């Protein structure tokens, strides 16, 4: 009986003392960095339309968000880009599944664990819908266009079929 009580006390203490179990997303003191600070600290900045959201095939705690790139400032060179975001809002993931076919300004990083893998973003970046990104456009100017290549035409055509 004493052993069970001691075990219960240890488990409850661990749960109560663990700061990450019930903590909501916390972006820290630098939340909503300036446009230039954010631009300089990420690997890619682009505008794109959310065309699909799926659970990542190997990193199942993440959504793989597919964007049709409508313009870019840095870090992307293709018409379609995949970006990971955590599934949980509590872990600062962006619920892109709520925004299918909507356009965003995306600030994303290459993953330090998988630098050749997909980019990633979260709620603590300036990633937002284009309608809320007036300051970003004022500071960065208009994004560059990605030329439509014949290989990209099939992707674009498939979106509208």
Topology:
Elements: H1 2-17, H2 35-41, E1 44-55, E2 62-74, E3 80-86, E4 103-110, E5 119-120, E6 128-129, H3 134-140, H4 150-159
Parallel strand pairs: 3-5
Antiparallel strand pairs: 1-2, 1-4, 2-3, 4-5, 4-6
Describe this structure in words.
It is a single chain. The longest helix is centred in the N-terminal third of the chain and has 16 residues, at 2-17. The chain starts with a helix and ends with a helix. The chain has helices at 2-17, 35-41, 134-140, 150-159; strands at residues 44-55, 62-74, 80-86, 103-110, 119-120, 128-129. The relative contact order is 0.18. A 5-stranded mixed barrel has the order 1-2-3-5-4. The protein is globular and about 35 Å long. Residues 1-22 have low confidence and may be disordered. The chain has 161 residues and is α+β, with helices and mostly antiparallel strands. The protein has one domain (26-159): OB fold (Dihydrolipoamide Acetyltransferase, E2P) (Beta Barrel), CATH 2.40.50.120. The chain has 4 helices and 6 strands.
């Amino acid at each position: 009986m004493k052993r069970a009580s001691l075990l219960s006390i240890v488990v409850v203490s661990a749960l109560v003392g663990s700061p990450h179990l019930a903590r909501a997303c916390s972006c820290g003191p630098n939340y909503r960095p300036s446009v230039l600070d954010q631009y300089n600290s990420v690997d890619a900045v682009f505008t794109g339309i959310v065309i699909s959201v799926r659970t990542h095939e190997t990193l199942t705690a993440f959504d793989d968000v597919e964007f049709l790139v409508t313009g870019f400032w840095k870090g992307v060179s293709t018409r379609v880009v995949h970006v990971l975001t955590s599934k949980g809002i509590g872990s600062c993931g962006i619920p892109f599944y709520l925004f299918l076919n909507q356009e965003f300004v995306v600030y994303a990083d290459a993953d330090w664990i998988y630098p050749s893998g997909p980019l990633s973003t979260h709620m603590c970046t300036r990633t937002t819908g284009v309608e809320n990104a007036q300051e970003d456009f004022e500071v960065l100017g208009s994004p560059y266009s990605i030329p439509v290549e014949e290989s990209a035409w099939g992707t674009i055509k498939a979106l509208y079929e």
